[in-house]
Amino acid sequence: MLSVPHYSKKIEWKNKNGKVIFVFYHNKLVERLVRLFVKKPETTTLELYEIGSTVWNLIDGKRNVYEMGQKLKERFRDSVEPFYDRLIIFMRYLNRRGWGKY
């Protein structure tokens, strides 16, 4: 697969000790109203596991999916097999959520 993934500007994220953390703000009108009645925080976070964080950090707008798969194979060896299947599923998930495009 020769498509080149890139980040969506819709997602806010930070890198903490090599782990990627997505930050979600709950500031829509309905969410603010719910917060009045239920103890719900203004923000929530989602921390990616090691492989997901590595994939996210490999997205640079220049590397294609094939090259990203090769980097994953170099770093994690057999623990990510079948690595292209897993990588494509993860990229589709990011695309469906609107967090990444490819």
Automatic annotation (TrEMBL):
InterPro entries: PQQD, PqqD_sf
Pfam families (UniProt xref): PqqD
Listed name of the protein: PqqD: coenzyme PQQ synthesis protein D
Organism name: Thermoanaerobacter kivui
